[in-house]
């Protein structure tokens, strides 16, 4: 039963106001997401709104899953019929039904970052553009921006004035053509084409408007223009749109998010009700006041009041480490202490501003035996062998995908060399064929040697056959992998590297199992007959290869790699949005890192960094730790930077200090470091030991000692602290096992189940060390 009484007055008002446009603009932890969820539950349970008329949009798949689970608890199984998804997933579902109207076929592929970059490089090479002069990343950024602003190549070209924009316009036009030929969308296309579909096909739009009478969008402050425009079209007819957000938490402007979307909601919908929430239920007083004090330094913001009725709680602990290793070690020690006091690992998180910082933190956590997981762990899917498998699978459903075809035509080696591939490409270009079609054509091309033609024939036959495989998903995927000969080729290499690649491909099969288990179709959740829009857009099917690939592609770097819960979470501040933890550590609170030097030069960038600090601080419920290092290795150089200004912006009575010279900088002493200049050089000069007389930091050690760069050093570190022969581990699938050999990143583990030994990559395998 829905307990509306547990809500405060304005929260209840927002839940009960179910018709017409509604804006909830409120600070962190004030219950915006809770209100949005309760409002849906109220509509379904108390007002009998059919669940399939509801569309809720969240920022990450993880947030969507959480919301779906919560709704499941609140309203029971009927919750399954509603769409709770990210913008991108929503667009994929819509495009799967109607993309033919835009000239695509339903088996389209979604290109991720890597595919996108490869295709762009290809296009730029074709246009004779020197990648040194025109870095592919910046061109990609500009194209992405254009798409987020809904500018088609023609419009973009008309507006291009400066040389970079002109070059971008040329690349953009060809790139779009190539995507279309490959029957592929990049991430930004998903939004842009959905918009175009709605814009150019009013009947389609109207069908969706009538189906989704109720639209709810969380984290609205971070929507970009395309998302804004789609929402606006969808809501135009019935105007039942609720958006919630916080202008102080807008942290994605670098990706095209436009804070005006929230600030101008009232102008877009003159009838809109606007509700403010002012009570924070998440954080203790000191933490909330610290967050308020920091964000108050921003000038461009709507003034907001945010109070809490929970007590002051603990002060914020600021730790000054001698270097990043000391920082990691201290954090690991505190986590251990908290854990001994009864705080579970999943209630703790470590945030950092940039991904590069995670390495030293991870290393220290590993050494201390603290189980952790990294959000943003899509790296498994980025591995070459996994990409190969995905390319084969992709070709089975979309043989027009040229990038996939080129990736695996000679992977494993079939004797189809570079010249032959170029020859096929030329045929494709000249005859307007896809790469696969051109390859098939080349079978009869007598300018090619018989041996080459046979090799091409083998590949073409493989893909043609694989397209007809049917039955259970896992069986189909196994058959494709088997037919591809990827594993057999790796087996012949007989190297440890190849062994671990084989293990990874096998691990991929457990990903398939995970997908199948979590996507059992629930017929009862489908809307009634007659709502034929849904004919194709039901839940992802556990049997469909196409749906599986879609699921793989849409796992974003913001989604947790695993939902297992006995882990401390490591993540960037960006990906922490919307989440909460009892204890939060924010590492690297130094100028140039946080605020980041890329953004802090202009006032707008600095304000966004400050909002990011606000997001970080407001994730903590009970305890907040901010750490900084006197000296830090960044990309092989030692830097000493002043403590972040954001620390200084927290009133001194709310914080206490620990670590280096802690007696000196409880208050104003902080700012003195502001004058110290960065030093660079070898790690020796900046080592904690010599400069500060603290030997615990051990900063004189060469950097490679911690890392995966030197196999020798790695052996030492793995054997000493991380994993050693004899360690007992627990694997998610294989259960208990014992480490029998440590070889660089690879662990040889003998599992009791089936008495088998497996070689697993310590960074990727789902294993935890058990301290007996
Ligand atoms: N009326 C209430 N009574 C008790 N707990 C509440 C109430 N409202 C919200 N909470 C709790 O406060 C915490 C913060 O709520 P929620 O995550 O919905 O805030 P939010 O405004 O969405 O935060 P953010 O801006 O960080 O996304 C949650 O643990 C939620 O369950
Ligand atoms: Mg929220």
From TrEMBL:
<feature type="region of interest" description="Disordered">
    <location>
        <begin position="665"/>
        <end position="718"/>
    </location>
</feature>
<keyword id="KW-0067">ATP-binding</keyword>
<keyword id="KW-0378">Hydrolase</keyword>
<dbReference type="GO" id="GO:0043138">
    <property type="term" value="F:3'-5' DNA helicase activity"/>
</dbReference>
<dbReference type="InterPro" id="IPR013986">
    <property type="entry name" value="DExx_box_DNA_helicase_dom_sf"/>
</dbReference>
<dbReference type="GO" id="GO:0009314">
    <property type="term" value="P:response to radiation"/>
</dbReference>
<dbReference type="GO" id="GO:0033202">
    <property type="term" value="C:DNA helicase complex"/>
</dbReference>
<feature type="compositionally biased region" description="Gly residues">
    <location>
        <begin position="680"/>
        <end position="691"/>
    </location>
</feature>
<dbReference type="InterPro" id="IPR000212">
    <property type="entry name" value="DNA_helicase_UvrD/REP"/>
</dbReference>
<dbReference type="InterPro" id="IPR014017">
    <property type="entry name" value="DNA_helicase_UvrD-like_C"/>
</dbReference>
<dbReference type="GO" id="GO:0005829">
    <property type="term" value="C:cytosol"/>
</dbReference>
<dbReference type="GO" id="GO:0016887">
    <property type="term" value="F:ATP hydrolysis activity"/>
</dbReference>
<dbReference type="Pfam" id="PF21196">
    <property type="entry name" value="PcrA_UvrD_tudor"/>
</dbReference>
<dbReference type="GO" id="GO:0005524">
    <property type="term" value="F:ATP binding"/>
</dbReference>
<dbReference type="InterPro" id="IPR014016">
    <property type="entry name" value="UvrD-like_ATP-bd"/>
</dbReference>
<dbReference type="Pfam" id="PF13361">
    <property type="entry name" value="UvrD_C"/>
</dbReference>
<dbReference type="InterPro" id="IPR027417">
    <property type="entry name" value="P-loop_NTPase"/>
</dbReference>
<comment type="similarity">
    <text>Belongs to the helicase family. UvrD subfamily.</text>
</comment>
<keyword id="KW-0347">Helicase</keyword>
<dbReference type="GO" id="GO:0003677">
    <property type="term" value="F:DNA binding"/>
</dbReference>
<keyword id="KW-0413">Isomerase</keyword>
<feature type="binding site">
    <location>
        <begin position="26"/>
        <end position="33"/>
    </location>
    <ligand>
        <name>ATP</name>
    </ligand>
</feature>
<dbReference type="GO" id="GO:0000725">
    <property type="term" value="P:recombinational repair"/>
</dbReference>
<feature type="domain" description="UvrD-like helicase C-terminal">
    <location>
        <begin position="285"/>
        <end position="578"/>
    </location>
</feature>
<feature type="domain" description="UvrD-like helicase ATP-binding">
    <location>
        <begin position="5"/>
        <end position="284"/>
    </location>
</feature>
<keyword id="KW-0238">DNA-binding</keyword>
<dbReference type="Pfam" id="PF00580">
    <property type="entry name" value="UvrD-helicase"/>
</dbReference>
<protein>
    <recommendedName>
        <fullName>DNA 3'-5' helicase</fullName>
        <ecNumber>5.6.2.4</ecNumber>
    </recommendedName>
</protein>
<keyword id="KW-0547">Nucleotide-binding</keyword>
